[in-house]
Amino acid sequence: MSISNEEYGRMAKRLSPNSPVVTDCIKAFIFGGSICAFAEGLNIAFSYTSMTQEESKALTMIILIAITAILTAFGVFDTIAKHAGAGTMVPITGFANSIVCSALEFQTEGRILGTAAQMFTIAGPVIVFGCSTAALYGLIIYLFGLY
Amino acid sequence: MDIVVDLLKAFAVGGGICIIGQLLIDFTKMTPGKVLVLFVVAGVVLGAVGVYEPLVDFAGAGATTPLTGFGYALAKGTRQAVAEKGLLGAISGPFSSASVGIMAAVLSGLVVSLFAKPKDK
Fold this sequence. Notes:
The complex is a heterodimer of chains A (147) and B (121). Chain A has 147 residues and is mostly helical.
């Protein structure tokens, strides 16, 4: 990797104490970590019920998505996300927020071309590339008998 | 005490994965959409080569909650589908594994758009 002096200066400045990057990363770590710990807490709680591991993981995901949707509806999620940055974006909450937020924002353009079509502005590419990569993986392990 | 250790592991690993995302945003000027795509694809690839599984065993929800975990679930589900149905599994597996996440998000988006109005930024 080659970087010019000017670029290096900028990078060093951003990494110096109290720089935005360090603060951003600490916030992302705390918010993202808390969401994951909350999810782990739910999984542990469900492990005391008769649910299978698959069911409890699915329910945990649904609860995280539902909470995200409610917080997005009240405009609270955006306020948190402004501080949390990647902390709320990288967990499944970010995926859910991208769908709910677009569904709300484009309401004025109608149910079909607004809400329904725009829901997938960000989630669409995630699904397309994620599922296609998985399909390619499926093809490879099928051809080489790796499953 | 085991529970506290499990929560701390989930916190540390989940938070660590979020830091990677934050560094990508701050240093590469990637848009959030691109970061999300990259994380899911990375999760599929890491799941496919078997690197992600040990992380899930170690950190639980700390590894499955970030979008890389979503990608890992896609790879794992597709592998199971191929084992059960052969080539058809490569086509049916990805969406089946993603179905809960996608459908929960789509339904909540639809319900919220029926009852809420967009907030002014």
